[in-house]
Every structure is written in C-alpha cells, then in structure tokens.
Amino acid sequence: MFNIENIRKDFPILSEVINGKPLIYLDNAATTQKPQAVIDTLKHYYEHTNANVHRSVYTLSERATKEYEAARDKVQKYIHATHREEVIWVRGTTEAINLVAQSFLRPQLKAGDEILITAMEHHANIVPWQLVAEQTGAVIKVLPINDQGELILDELDNLLTSRTKLFAFTYISNAIGTINPVKWLIDKAHEKGIPVLVDGAQALPHVKINVQQLNCEFFACSAHKGYGPTGIGVLYGKKELLEKMPPYQGGGDMIRTVSFEKTTFAELPLKFEAGTPNIADAIGFGAAIDYLSQLDWKALMHYEHELFLMAKEALKEIPGLRIIGEAKDQASIISFVMDGAHPHDIGTIVDSYGVAIRASHHCAMPLMKRFCVPATARVSFSFYNTKEEIQVLLEALHGVKKVFGLP
After folding, report:
1. Mean pLDDT calculated for residue range 43-64
2. DSSP at 168
3. 82 vs 23, 75, 76, 210, CA distance in Å?
4. Spatial distance between the Cα atoms of 358 and 363, rounded to a whole number of angstroms
5. I need a surface site. Which of 42, 225, 276, 291 has the fewest CB within 10 A?
6. Cα(287)–Cα(59) distance, rounded to whole angstroms?
7. Which of the following CATH numbers is that of domain 39-293: 3.40.640.10, 3.30.70.260, 3.40.50.1000, 2.40.240.20?
8. Which of 251, 249, 250, 253 is nearest to 55 (CA)?
9. pLDDT at 55
10. Residue 2: pLDDT above 80?
11. Within 13 Å, how many C-alpha atoms sit on residue 195's CB side?
12. Domain residue extents for the chain
C-alpha cells in the first residue's frame, strides 16, 4: 500500500499555511519540495563537514571529498551509468545542455550542418543550439507536434539526414506532460549514426532512468526536479565521447598541470568541473536519491497516475476550461486555459485558497505559439499530493469563475 499520510510527514513544508489555508503545492514540474532527509543532510554538512574537496589532507576536507564523491556514485547507480566518470556535476539541466552544445557539438559543426529538436522543447533545449548555430552557420530543424501535443513521428525520417549532427529532445514535456517514445527516437537516430541528447529534467521524478538501456549519448537532469536541492544537476555522457571533448570551462580542479606556456587537464570527471563545486548540494542530491530509492516506485507511479486522471476528468467538467495537450501517454502535468480569465489571474486567485500552481509560458514559448495561447495555467502532481487537494483546486477554479462572473 502507498501510505500517503506517512509520505507527507517526510515533507515539512506541506504543513505550511498560505493565506490562512493549508498549502496545496501543485507546481511540482517547476520544482519539487524537499524531504526532511535532504534538509537534514544539508544542515549536517554545514555544521559538521564544510570544507573544500580534492585539495587538502585534513579531516574535514577528506570527509567532504568522501561524501561528495559518494553522491556521484549514488547518481551513477540510480541512472545506471556504466562508469562513475560519466557523471558530471553541473548546475542543472540547462548547464548540462550548454556544456554539450559548446564542448561536443560546436567543434564539429560547419555551415549547413543541422541540429534537430522538437516543437515541445523547453527554452533550455532550444537556445543553446541556436547559439552554436549562429556561431557556426548550422541550421536548427524542428520535429512538429499534432493537436494532441504528440510528436508527428512520420516526419522524423525526412528530418534525420546526413547533415544532422545531433538530435536533442525532451523525455517529458514540462509544459503539457507528453511522454515521448524515447527509446524509439534514440534508435531511429542511431540508425543514421546520429548522436542523441535527452533532456531528462521532468523524467527524473516520474520514471526510472536507465541510460544504458536508452543508449543515449547524453542525458541531462536537475536535482531540484527530483526532491533534491536547487543549483545542482548531472550531465551523463558516454565515456568515450567525454574523453574526446575539450573542457567547457577553465580553472581550478580541472587541471593536471599549469604553466604559462601550456595547461594539461585532469581526467574525467574533473575535466568538466572547474572551480569549487556545489559540494553541499551534490551531497544533498545523494540524500534525495537515497530517499527515492527506498520508495515503492510501482505504487508511487500508480498513485500519481490516479491523481492525474482524477484531476484531468474533473477539470474537463468545468465550463469554459480547455486542456492544452492531451497525448495518449502523459505524465502528471496538466496545462489549461479558461475563457475570460488570464492564466496569471487564475494563479493569483487560486493562491488565495492556498493552492500553488504555475501560470506562464513555462519556458516553452514556441509550444505556446503552436497552440495559439500566450500562456497556460499548469498543475503538476507529486506522490505527496492528495485527492482532497484536487477537490480544493476545483473549488478554487470555481472561485475564479465567480470573480469574473463566468458561467
């Protein structure tokens, strides 16, 4: 059995009171809340371990280094990377994609080469490719989506060509929740020798990740989407590719030797980790993985899907409310618009009920343009949400209609 009461006790912020009402947090696609175990780990680090890593022989530094590298091992095991050296610490998914764009892709691009992305990408999986395209004369190609928010797969063969140097796509859309056929897409690219980057930001909290089974060249994710701290994430890359790539940044800890004439670089993974790293939050990410690893994932995913279906069917019953994107395979993310009410107004009014939702373009402006809306209201669920919270959401949305005098 999935014990929601016990789960909720693990997250102290869920007992917060907002505008005189119990907090109902439904913005999990933006960032998830943190279990007490992660909070305690961060507190313990700063109280008992705080020191720089890799640079000293005194006890605190050795302790910090051990915990920091142990967190890397936890990530390796969690995503099933073959080698620990394939786990590169970055600030998050955005930096991971920028690293691949500048270190892997840019050196091999020339004018006329192509980068394929999809019409449902987050800006973090659009802008870095535009930057390298502008720097090299390469061209961005886009795999379109249909009215349900699904990729039009029949067009893929025509878009994957001898000029395509990388196919980069999201595992799960942050804006509309579409779950893409990731393994199929990777295999189609590999049939033509094209490497793949998967934006796994939304996948981390919803599905079990196995990069060996996926066989992608790169996988990017952020800890804060998966119950860990902000400001830390991971780039997974196949070792043979990472070894050939030049450093993304220069500075301390990523070097072997430095002289005024020449610098030689450290081995993986340090080659891509210049400067003092985000030690505490990397260790906190490890604590989040420990927490997730002890959960019953089969029950967790079933429960989340129940919440999603319940909310989706209830929202459809509200007159004037239209859901944006209804793919056959969706994660627990629902975007919608309401006749007569701007998404920002919806977000403000439901906040007075203690309900936190997202109201924006969700860093997916091309997707919004595809559906002819400037923005949407978005609710996104976690395994710590409840069916009772959905009822309050519905009450709040009827409150929106009342404020605007809508039928």
Report:
1. 96
2. E
3. 41, 11, 7, 10
4. 11
5. 276
6. 22
7. 3.40.640.10
8. 253
9. 80
10. no
11. 16
12. 4-26+296-400, 39-293
Residue for token digits 């604590």? 287
| pLDDT, position 1 | 57
With residue 378 as reference, give the H or E element that holds it. strand 376-380
For the whole prediction, is pTM greater than 0.90? Answer: yes
Reading the block at residue 193, the tokens are 């020798």
**Which amino acid belongs to residue 58?**
Y
Tokens of 237: 């890359």
How far lies 72's CA from each of 47, 79, 205, 235, 396, in Å?
22, 11, 18, 11, 42
In angstroms, the CA 174 to CA 201 distance is 8
Residues marked as catalytic? 363
Q: How far is CA 309 from CA 10, 86, 315, in A?
A: 25, 37, 10
Token reading at 192: 């033509």
Q: Is residue 140 within 8 Å of 115, Cβ to Cβ? A: yes
- Asked if residue 56 has pLDDT above 90, the reply is no
DSSP 103: I
Are 240 and 116 within 8 A, CB to CB? Answer: no
Return the CATH number of 4-26+296-400, one of 3.30.470.20, 3.30.9.10, 3.90.1150.10, 3.30.450.40.
3.90.1150.10
pLDDT at 221 over 90: yes
